[in-house]
């Protein structure tokens, strides 16, 4: 099977749940092992991870792909091709990228490589990546450069914003709804604090790839009935901060302006790969050689498993085929771009020894 045939078979596996994602790992493992390659399956908290390494040398390039997908309708697990596009859940995000990585390993397995190439296929990126890629990075499965095969339209996502999810609690004073001046409305206090937060110094900062961080008021909890001034409100914020920003300083500014404690729900590291990184330059050249065009370099607003490697100062990028509507009803990948993607990976590896 070539990379498109592998993608089609992977789409048929509903990997929106743990059992299905593990089945996808087993499917890929069978392809690799039947081709004579040595593989390793690691299981962490029930999540399977497939590792396969080829080549020799001190330098290691990691190809990281996730086989899990978000929920989809039954028909989305029945792949079909139309107008040069392969449709189906995970076609773009990111079973085509993972399939091309696997196919790259198969095509290079008998080549004389003076660097190591390690394929990592994981099963929980869509739910945070904590059981797979984070586990790998924390346990030394790192290298000199990491490519996560997210759909990037054959561009290179070299950075990603960090994640800071927090909640703040506001205490007011209850009163009858007909006499709001006798109370202290906690919901109003929360909203006024939110407006102040969106004007704090950290929100005005920018960097090479970003015009500003983002602050999303994602949830409000407060109030009981129409005719009562609410005396409690809980406000949730999802902040995506710039790679150069310190989340501790962001928390300090918010606490000082809001006058309440800042409770951290979760925090994710930013990806800080530099545009002048040697491997980024080599990847750009490979893209140019294969596509006869220039590659776009950009920063991602969301996050992927790259952040777990970047935490250990391993240059990491998102780089994948051309697709659209991932997480949507009509998700597809451009078939020709998957073949190009595979060629680019092979060229990059062959010229990076």
TrEMBL record:
Checking InterPro entries in the record gives:
Bact_exopeptidase_dim_dom, Peptidase_M20, Peptidase_M20_dimer, Peptidase_M20A
Record keywords: tRNA-binding included? Answer: no
Q: Which Gene3D superfamilies match?
A: 3.30.70.360, Zn peptidases
Keyword match Metal-binding? yes
Instruction: Tell me the superkingdom of the source.
Output: Bacteria
Q: Which UniProt keywords apply?
A: Hydrolase, Metal-binding
Q: Which PANTHER family match?
A: ACETYLORNITHINE DEACETYLASE, N-ACETYL-L-CITRULLINE DEACETYLASE
Question: Which protein are we looking at?
Answer: M20 family metallopeptidase
The lineage, from the top, is: Bacteria, Bacillati, Bacillota, Clostridia, Eubacteriales
